[in-house]
Amino acid sequence: MSDAASEAVEGISPSIDYVEFQARPEFRELKRRLRRFVFPLAAAFLAWFLLFVVLGAFAHDFMARPLLGMNVGIWFGLSQFVTTFAITTAYVMYTNRRIDPIAESLRAELETMVPRAEGGTS
């Protein structure tokens, strides 16, 4: 008797071949969409943050200039918070629209591949 059949006989559901599942076009598309959004946005934010740090370290006169009642350095620092919230909002909107539908369908498919044991809870 094969291992999968003996596991099924003993009441243990057979395992899923996750490597094979990850090779599927739907899963690869999910990863591609996520990476195309996350990596460029992370790189842009990192560059923006490093600009703030470099200007703070080497452009003291510029960062100390008054602008609308505060200095430029304070405005740059506050804009980091605004940028963080904007990126978070954009990420949530993007994933709700482009990532979650694919992820939910893949998850549902995985859940049907291995039926839950009788009396089991999630």
From TrEMBL:
It holds the Pfam family DUF485. The keyword Transmembrane helix applies. InterPro entries: DUF485. Keywords: Membrane, Transmembrane, Transmembrane helix. The chain crosses the membrane at residues 37-60, 72-94. The keyword Phosphoprotein does not apply. PANTHER family: INTEGRAL MEMBRANE PROTEIN-RELATED, MEMBRANE PROTEIN. This is Membrane protein. It comes from Leucobacter komagatae.
